[in-house]
User: Which sequence fits this backbone?
């Protein structure tokens, strides 16, 4: 379980790579949260851009957008500030 999952938050990775590539990536880096292949680009059309991280609440509202590699502390603080961890 990641720190964010301990805060009642689901962490998920989405990539345009094939599922085989995604699985190898997860194994190589020890990633335990769900990784999804968006080979058809359906999710990419909904959330365009380069490497972008979205914090989406349970109602589907985007609460935070972070471009590039996120600072985990920023995301954790935002989850707590919004009360999403309860």
Assistant:
């Amino acid at each position: 379980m990641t720190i964010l999952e301990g805060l009642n938050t689901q962490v998920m990775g989405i990539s345009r790579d094939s599922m085989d590539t995604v699985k190898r990536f997860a194994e190589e880096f020890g990633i335990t949260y769900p990784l999804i292949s968006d080979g058809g680009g359906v999710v990419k059309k909904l959330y365009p851009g380069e490497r972008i991280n979205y914090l989406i609440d349970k109602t589907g509202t985007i609460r935070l957008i972070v471009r590039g590699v996120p600072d985990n502390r920023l995301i954790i603080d935002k989850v707590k500030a919004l009360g999403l961890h309860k």
